[in-house]
Amino acid sequence: EKAVNLKKDLAEMQEWMTQAEEEYLEKDFEYKSPEELENAVEEMKRAKEDVLQKEVRVKILKDNIKMLATKVPSSGQDLATELNVVLENYQLLCNRIRGKCHTLEEVWSCWIELLQYLDLETAWLNNLEERVQMTGNLPDKLDAVNDALESLESVLRHPADNRTQIRELGQTLIDGGILDDIISEKLEAFNARYEELSHLAVSRQIALEQQLQTMRETDHMLQVLQESLGDLDRQLTSYLTDRIDAFQMPQEAQ
């Protein structure tokens, strides 16, 4: 009777494993929204826990069959053969579910990381847009233009590492058919804004550099002219002081 019960337990265990495989491993999942992906991750975590909890039952079956084999070798030998099949299938099921759970957790982590990088770069784009707008109505002063140019250039020196991560993470998920529509839309919007603002910022940078150069040249010319007028003023003053008649002066002084 004990052998019959153990045989029944082995059959039930095998049936449960077949159902678990069909439910957790053979379903064709499509992750088109973050909610679907998150639900799938949670489901696989529960599946892993469920499968691992059966380890106690498997161990009890194994011990009972070994005990029976010592008392009734013939019955125990037959059950030991069936047990080995069940143990092998159980180990395979555990490994496959662990693997799928790990994969889904990695995919979810990849998605969260992508969102974080997008948030960082969006904040940078907002800052860049603000700096560009600040250069629109500058006072016509050398210091103001120079400060605006330096401020804009400091933002433009932003490293490209984050954008590289965004591109690679997004492509990895899209290639796997995971959240591909949502990610494509996000990346398209981000890249379009990045290209537009970058082009605008660089154009504004060039304009400020040209404006600054013109102002410096004008400032230099005014300085030279001022020095020249100062020299002439001092020379004319000396002529007046010495009471020199205008017709005795050089032609340029007259």
Automatic annotation (TrEMBL):
The keyword 4Fe-4S does not apply. Keywords: Coiled coil. Residues 3-64 form a coiled coil. This is UTRO protein. InterPro entries: Spectrin/alpha-actinin, Spectrin_repeat. Pfam families: Spectrin. It comes from Platysteira castanea. Gene3D superfamilies: 1.20.58.60.
